[in-house]
Automatic annotation (TrEMBL):
GO terms for biological process: defense response to bacterium; defense response to fungus; protein ubiquitination; regulation of jasmonic acid mediated signaling pathway; regulation of salicylic acid mediated signaling pathway; systemic acquired resistance, salicylic acid mediated signaling pathway. Its main location: cytoplasm. GO terms for cellular component: cytoplasm; nuclear body. The keyword Transport does not apply. GO terms for molecular function: zinc ion binding. The keyword Cytoplasm applies. ANK repeats lie at residues 238-263. Belongs to the plant 'ANKYRIN-BTB/POZ' family. 'NPR1-like' subfamily. It holds the Pfam family NPR1_like_C. It comes from the Eukaryota. SMART domains: ANK. It comes from Gossypium trilobum. Residues 53-67 form the C2HC NPR-type domain. This is C2HC NPR-type domain-containing protein.
Length: 408
């Protein structure tokens, strides 16, 4: 490749390193995709699709057009474009054209974004993707977030020409909705509250929860949920519930926040998918089944699937939080001690999972073992105001509240 000749001839030191991002600035190329291109350059042969990398976790999937397969092929296409390997560009563009009708429209947006970056060499792929998106139900906000403005305008114009949309429906939401969206993207929930008081719209009409879950920080979503002014099972114009959108976002904290507020994991999309299936179709088998070292964070994709699986088994996700005020003092103390110990141990062995759960439960560490003082050698947290060893032990509201939180 002439690209490598140019790059390496410019390196003065034989031991100098070259960052891939200096070449591939517009999109991140995964390790497996890079290896596929380099293998072709070194051997002249196209390797078969790597096992596990192009497979999702859904057993019912044919793995032809699921997200892991699409991501790999699209990344190889972009890498081939960056390294100027025309044979690979033609091959993988043809591959995407062959499967594009079996790819979910939200994943086609990813393909379209990459193909557009490749310019004229991927003109056929761009044209096919635009044709599919034009006839889809993808809304203007999603298009604007996922694609360059010229492509968005092309899609809007095509919809008007084909009478697929009325002129009044092709633009962005009205100014009141846009203000709420901008406030959310600025993490300013207090401003959202003030805008709602003006009475021009409400959170459901603005699809505010959907927007926050898709594009905002997890903390902002939690604060918006805490307002208690939105239907957590509300559907947007495409028939997606907030939990469906959260599954696409692949953020465990957001998923758990929604479930604890009453989101239904059993709700189906228009094409019959639950949040769990959405999450599985987005997750690479190689990542899901990869063993995690003790004390290291688990992949977010796997956490999302495990949370949703638990939610389906226990729908809704409230754990053992329904407690009786008549519970005996000694029993309550033993249960609290057990839960405090369990959370402390979880922090050591599964830090990512523990952090997600404790954030959602809104408890900072545990009474027996605060997160700040736990280390791998010794569990020696300081006592807090919730003293489980005081005698005689008396049931107080703070004990019940903490037990509910830790039982989630």
């Amino acid at each position: 490749s002439s690209v490598f000749k140019t790059v390496f001839s410019g390196l003065k030191d034989s031991g100098a390193k070259f960052e891939l991002k200096e070449l591939a600035r517009d999109y991140e190329i995964g390790y497996d995709s890079l290896v596929a291109v380099l293998a072709y350059l070194y051997t002249g042969k196209v390797k078969s699709l790597p096992k596990g990398v192009c497979l999702c976790v859904d057993d019912g999937c044919s793995h032809v057009g699921c997200r892991p397969a699409v991501d790999f092929i699209a990344e190889v296409l972009y890498a081939a474009f960056v390294f100027q390997v025309p044979e690979l560009i033609a091959l993988y563009q043809r591959h995407l054209l062959d499967i594009i009708d079996r790819v979910a429209v939200d994943d086609i947006l990813v393909v379209l974004y990459i193909a557009n970056m490749c310019g004229n060499v991927c003109e056929k792929l761009v044209s096919k993707c635009v044709e599919i998106v034009v006839k889809s139900d993808v809304d203007i906000v999603t298009l604007d977030k996922a694609l360059p403005q010229p492509i968005v305008e092309q899609i809007i114009d095509s919809r008007l020409e084909l009478s697929l949309d009325k002129p009044e429906n092709v633009g962005f939401p009205d100014k009141h909705v846009r203000r709420i969206h901008r406030a959310l993207e600025s993490d300013d929930v207090e401003l959202v509250r003030m805008l709602l008081k003006e009475g021009h719209t409400n959170l459901d009409e603005a699809y505010a929860l959907h927007h926050a879950v898709a594009y905002c920080d997890a903390k902002t979503t939690t604060e918006l949920l805490d307002l208690g002014l939105a239907d957590v099972n509300h559907r947007n114009s495409r028939g997606y519930t907030v939990l469906h959108v959260a599954a696409m976002r692949k953020e465990p904290k957001i998923i758990v926040s929604l479930l604890t507020k009453g989101a239904r994991p059993s709700d189906l999309t228009i094409d019959g998918r639950k949040a769990l299936q959405i999450s599985k179709r987005l997750t690479r088998a190689a990542d899901y089944y990869k063993s995690t070292e003790e004390g290291k964070a688990s992949p977010k994709d796997r956490l999302c699937i495990e949370i949703l699986e638990q939610a389906e088994r226990r729908d809704p996700l409230h754990g053992e939080a329904s407690l009786s005020l008549a519970m005996a003092g000694d029993d309550l103390r033993m249960k609290l001690l057990y839960l405090e110990n369990r959370v402390g141990l979880a922090k050591l062995l599964f830090p990512m999972e523990a952090k997600v759960v404790m954030d959602i439960a809104q408890v900072d560490g545990t009474s027996e073992f605060t997160f700040a003082t736990i280390n791998s050698n010794k569990l020696n947290g300081a006592q807090t105001t919730v003293d489980l060893n005081e005698a005689p032990f008396r049931i107080q509201e703070e004990h019940l509240n903490r037990l509910k939180a830790l039982s989630r």
